[in-house]
Amino acid sequence: MSDKELTPGRHLIYMEWYSRDVGGLFMKMNRHLFAAKSPYQRIDIFESDFYGRVFSLDGITMTTERDEFMYHEMLVHVPMFMHPNPKKVLVIGGGDGGSVREVLKHPTVEKVVMCEIDELVVKAAKEYLHYTANKLDDPRVELVFEDGSKFVKQFKNEFDVIIIDSTDPTAGQGGHLFTLEFYKACSEALKEDGVFCAQTEGIFYDYEWGATAYRRIKANFPIAKMYLGFMPTYPGGMWSYTFASKAGLDPVKDFNPEKVRNFKEPLRYYNEEVHVAAFALPTFVRKLIED
Amino acid sequence: MSDKELTPGRHLIYMEWYSRDVGGLFMKMNRHLFAAKSPYQRIDIFESDFYGRVFSLDGITMTTERDEFMYHEMLVHVPMFMHPNPKKVLVIGGGDGGSVREVLKHPTVEKVVMCEIDELVVKAAKEYLHYTANKLDDPRVELVFEDGSKFVKQFKNEFDVIIIDSTDPTAGQGGHLFTLEFYKACSEALKEDGVFCAQTEGIFYDYEWGATAYRRIKANFPIAKMYLGFMPTYPGGMWSYTFASKAGLDPVKDFNPEKVRNFKEPLRYYNEEVHVAAFALPTFVRKLIED
């Protein structure tokens, strides 16, 4: 693992081009901590004063330690609080461990299977990302290094909650986690009262993918609803997620805010008001995903 | 007015450093349409395929034609729909005309006074920004080119709605629009049932200003509430606004969604659900502005 320190007083500029090549975010880094090429993708970890450590795959930002809580809390707690009694959870992707960390905050959880295609991502995260640390060593966690789209097919009526924490469909290894067939397999792997949630991309730059993913999920569940959250270091800062329920649970009408108010674990973004508010879509987003 | 066309096939990268010098947004431009130095600031207008025309002051992005509607609709319609019968409106700043355009959609409005310190901003906007066009020539609009913090002091009990559409307190000429004294003068210039709204900065990078502005507004009104909206080309994409009411109107409890549902003018971001949802603050934002 390389560990190059830059000349003190000089900085490395990390630039991420957003989709369509129209622009992007740049961040000032102090050090390039890790660089490697796995069989699947290029992995980099940088360090900076403001963002903390920044983890990227093929040059696309996956997480920064400064704002990863916004993404992980919104992806995980919306489905987790919608399920009456989540015991067995499947996370597909999420090799950095942020989603598993949030799942484990729920005391009903007995087992979390995390299926990440790239073992090197997990190794790098455990060594370099402070928020990953030993979270993936929890005895309730089972790590599987396989293609999630194939892995999920072996299960029928197995999980209470399935969470898709994928990379972008246009980059790296994420494309197979955005197909109609994959979402169907997820639905089948869920128990009858199971709930599902996927990150469904930004809605400002690469907005077609959000609409496509939402429609494909909706085609496989009796109810699917898109919701939004702020995510400053993702393209446009405007991120979408899609919740779905096999039993037809409505994430707003059937939501019990008491459960969140009584939750003992610390949360920094998600709360009972944010849960409901996230489903209120701006008019242009409503139109984008209209059938 | 300069009008430089770049070599076809080559592009200009517009880079905005966010506060704290930690990074920023870059956008690919095709042409640099306008550059001038007024007595107050440097004004630039660029053109690009994705963002449309981009207007900046002292190198800080003020608007892009692609997403200005998100900012202007959230800044203007929250206070406008909270007032029972808004007839006379004061906009301070907002020389690009976007806020006035939104105010004029409300059929009760008889007069909008726009007080912009820099006449050259208005001239450039009218010539180069498609969304400004002839909106500021509406007979209901009165343009005043003065320092808004001085201008507002001459009024007592005069306006139904006051909207602060300022530049950043740390850049250009905006600092005087963030003082305790200025917010006090705004309160005095409002009628007894008047409502107030100000843009109160991003909450991810330059978060101290948001909290400071909110507290200073709150010190001058019986009720003040911060709300958030997506704004992809502003730092972090996570923008804050603060609503206040002289008569103690609560922007959620006293909000009438029917008025929005029956509104005839087209809106692209704001709707009756977004109005309420915007006041649901993520936990870290609640803590940031806690007294």
From TrEMBL, chains A, B:
Spermidine binds at H72, D96, D165, S166, T167, D168. Its EC number is 2.5.1.16. Keywords: Polyamine biosynthesis, Spermidine biosynthesis, Transferase. GO terms for cellular component: cytosol. GO terms for biological process: spermidine biosynthetic process. It is an enzyme of class 2 (transferase). Pathway: Amine and polyamine biosynthesis; spermidine biosynthesis; spermidine from putrescine: step 1/1. It comes from the Bacteria. Signal peptide: none annotated. The active site is at D165. The keyword Transferase applies. Pfam families: Spermine_synt_N, Spermine_synth. One of its GO terms (molecular function) is spermidine synthase activity. SUPFAM superfamilies: S-adenosyl-L-methionine-dependent methyltransferases. Belongs to the spermidine/spermine synthase family. Homodimer or homotetramer. This is Polyamine aminopropyltransferase.
